Amino acid sequence: MNRRGEIEMPERPERGRRLRPARGRERVGGVRPGGLRSRLAGGRRVGGGGQAGRERPFLLGCAALVILLTASIIVFISAKGLATFVVNRVSPVEFLFSAQWAPDRPAAEGGPRVGGLPYILGSVAVSVLAVAVATPLSISGAVFAVEVAPRWGQRALQPALEMLAGIPSVVYGWLGLTILVPFVRDHIGGLGFSLLAGFLVLAVMILPTIFTVSADSLRALPVDLKEAAYALGSTRWQTIRRVLLPAARTGIIAGVVLGLARAFGEALAVQMVIGNTRKIPGSLLDPVTTLTSAITMDMPYTVMGSLWNNVLWSMALLLLLISCGFIVAIKLMARRGVKL
């Protein structure tokens, strides 16, 4: 408004001419707005870019070291295990399907026999039965802890089960030896040292592994799945069975794989309760032996490079192949969408 009381309109800029922002807005913290966006987008001029570039070779080196260690272990065990068939000329058919075990028998009495069928069947039976017992209990416990139990129940149940994973194997074996073996002998039958005692102890040991991975898989599911199921009129149990469990199938199967891997590799606790008898079990009450028990008991008393020692390395190679085979098979099942 001028002195005469008239309102003055601001002059319009000429066509083709842009208004420049005020100098105070031209730079923010000494950086132009466009330059700030270009620096954030480019990522090279940001302060952390140089540090990330320096950390990349270190991370690549750690990854390469892990791959190298894994490959070295596989190559070493393979070289030792194949010596039974390459150096000692033992037939793979005899090793896998024969039940005769006499690695130190002289040639005058018929020569050595290194049939590993009792060890193989013992390991498979103990591990598979342990997983068959622990998997339903673990999945049911995970569903209860995540979807059913109140908050105080979740805070008490999961830590209690996870504490079982920190108990040493020798403690499990000692409890099985002093409590489970006498109970089986007095109330069920047999000597107590049996396949039954072995897979029950092993089922308790792998229970926390399958439970923890299954519970984490259920918690990682988006809430939209549950809300959509409820919106369609599903009950809680229908939602759990038909929506949540199929959606968390991959994580649950991964937990079963981890439990199975521990079951196959466990030696001390199982060795203390199964009886370690070299024969094929006819029932759950018969004593058995496993591949890990044979390796831990016989390896210190064999001469390096002898037939007996090479056969034990072949058992270790077989354990490695069985574990890898189960992992690959279950991964393929999860990828193809096998229903629970």
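Next protein, fold it too.
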Amino acid sequence: MSSAASLSGDRHHLHAQQQDPTKTKTIRQTYARRLRGAFGRINSTIRDAVIEEDIFGLRDDDLSDEQVEELLDTFASADRDVELRAVDEPPDLSTVLPSERIERFREWLQTAQESEVLEVIDRDENVWVRRAYERGLEDADTNLRQAGLDIESTDSKAARELVEMPVHERKLQVLFSRNYAELEGITNAVAQQVTRELADGIAAGENPTKMARRITDRVNKIGKTRATVLARTETINAHTQSTIERYRQQGINSVGLEPEVQVQTAGDQRVCDRCASVAQRGPWTLDEFEGSENQPPIHPQCRCAVIPIVNEAAAAALEAHPHEFVAMYRTGAFVDESRERYEALAATDVDGAQELVAHFSPTQAAA
């Protein structure tokens, strides 16, 4: 329980670290890089198979080995940071009917995406989401301490232990499933678009170079781009979910009241008008804030954090009459019209405080 002195006075506003207020930049970057790398390996295999091996039988003239290598080099510059050729090659489809080529290549692509992209995470586990969630627990306690609450700090080891609590495990499982479903949707969209491009290219009689460009362009613009957005957005979502839950938990278990919250932007030139506007509003109670349009991620690739504001009306009531405050809190007296009741308790004397307790909980008053 925090001391009365630490909770009284002006509202304490936590100023989060600028540019990376959630301190998850490395998590976001490595998550996105792993997903892009998986799509990059698929693209590398497609380029080699379509141009060098001519698996669709599209080449009309014979190219020298040097010319083939030159064509491959024109595609490689976009994926220089990607480990190449870890994907099983597609089958030779040059001798089958065009319609069968399309279907068999789609089947290969789906398998390749399952083995490369979807293997990065799992329906029941996601190391990046888990670490972002743990980071949120650490940050929540740090933020509350900086806001003036007398609670113990949480390090990475303690955070790993905290996530084993049922309330956090349930939230993590929802986040894991959400990430997997989103990524699966991206791979399905890639397969659909590549199939369409392949059909159009075959119908147009395009050469291997143009066909490879058609296909890899879709993998890049749909697969890599959307996977990057997914990684960045869901990392912030995990951090926000754990932060809010920890604020609620610490408020009830350690403080005796729930803090109000505001949104903290990254504070740089990249901050959008929407996030800047939300950061100017509030504070909100946790019940008002959670699940609202103001909760980060406010938009895809949002970088905002949720920071606590000590509820000064509640703090004043707790300081004036701590025993009566706890009694009223336990009976739910502050669920409705909370600010008015906090202020009434803070302003009254001992007899008035007892009357308020009796009004809301005769059992507590008798005790």
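About the second fold: Residues 1-17, 74-85 have pLDDT under 50 and may be disordered.
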